[in-house]
Input
Amino acid sequence: MRDAAELTQPTTIELAPARRGAPKHCGWCGRRLPEGGNVGRRRRYCGQSCRQRAYERRTALQRSGLPEDAVVLSDTEIAALQDRLFQLRCAAEDIVTAADDGADARELRGLAEEIARAAKDLEQLR
Output
């Protein structure tokens, strides 16, 4: 029979170790991948078109001599990224100004939601 100390201890259940290094988002478009089973390799892309675009990028990089982890952006993409970063910075400055001016919680929450939207937009680089 177990003594009282053992009965009060919570029991732990060993779970299968989590896979490391497997992406949780599509390697091309960044969309969240569906959770799969524990059998086989994890998906790297959300679909065949993303897999094809990634292949085309890899082969183009090999031909150009750029390193595999290089990110190539056009002037337009760089300008758009800089605009989005500027919007994020301005939204953060708005919160600081509103807090200094004694804004109420509702107003601060609205500004914080604006920052969250801007940051989410920045996550989608492609």
About this structure: The chain has a mean pLDDT of 79. The chain has four helices and no strands. The radius of gyration is 23 Å. The first helix runs from residue 4 to 8.
